[in-house]
Amino acid sequence: MPMSPESLEELRSLIAVARKRPLSFGVCLGKQPEGAVMVLHRLKEPSILARQAKKEGDTPKVTFGTVEVKGKKMMLTCEGDVLPGMSKHLKRFLASADLKLKVVALDPTGALADDDGEPEEEAGEAQAEAPKPSSPEAESWAKVAPAMAVLVGRLLDAGHEKAEQIQAAWTRAENAADADNFTEALAIAAKLKPLLTAAPAPSGGPQPQGETSESPDARRWAALQPAMARLFETAMGLNPENRSQLNAAWAMAVEKAEAGDAAAALQIAARLKPALETVISKGATGTAAEIPKDVVPFQKSRVLWAGTKSGMMAEMAKLETAIVNACAGDPELAPVAAEATELHKRLQVFDSRLEDVLDRITNSPEGAQRTALKAEARLAIKDYSDALKEDFFMDVDNDNGFAPVAVASTARKALDAIAKVLG
Known about the structure:
The protein is of the alpha+beta class. It has 16 helices and six strands. The protein is 58% helix and 8% strand.
């Protein structure tokens, strides 16, 4: 459905900010260009904006990344898919909102991937809007702001007890910078830094009572997840007829939790728990009596690996926050903090192949098919194990220089256990 007038007005104001610095964006193309949804934000991760755009939009055509506006050109650097024809679609959408911009889409490397097909206008206006020579304060702000924004965003998402004050102060800093008052922006950032860096990492294990930055829903999920995982494992071991639906529900709950939406994960778990308990209460009846002898170990392995990946993400988030806490606010170290916010992308190598093949093994009879699937699973384990031999994963746990974590060691332990099951 079309964006509301209020949302369009907010989009216009943030496009003005995107002339000064990159912003996160999420886009859902519409059935018609006028029905597109485009969401920009100063702090939130692009993937979060993509989910928001998809929820408000009317098609599954979604992507996300960062946006910059230079002169009359809007450049979308996509972290998600570059959607076919998206530039022309968005140019027409923006025109319907009285925003006359040429639109180009770039891939993650910065290479041109899609163009709206219209020639660029003369550079006169772009030159008129060229930035003024940078002052030392402006250069310091450019270095400090990205890392500080990450810290602010994380504490807001985690439900920090002073979230409103943090949001208000950071908005004042952003507004001051937008008005080229970098001295005031830096002064506000300096006052905020002690509060931001004193807060514990949202995903970082046990914390003293009364000092946690986690939201109540996040704490509830952290307490519930181990018991739910055991319940799910037990139910799946009985090979229920509705195992595909149960499997999909549990996967969705874990995905929501990993994306920071603990409330949604809890809602799914509340509906899933009775269904799992019903399966267990029936015991080894029906299809359970027909379970191949190796089904339970493979199902346990699948649950183990899914939980391991979730744990790795939490540990990596803890490391990211430790680095940002140590470096944000220092102009010399701010680039280190900005790079640290991308560390979680290192885990993309651990894709869904192993879970998928273990699930297929669970549904396969003894024989050639299962043998072939086990070989496929071993290949995935080899790929993951090879990745863990890279310098980054050899050093990440204890030699990162900021905080001890259990990213690689958690993965190695789980992969060794699964390899033994595969034989």
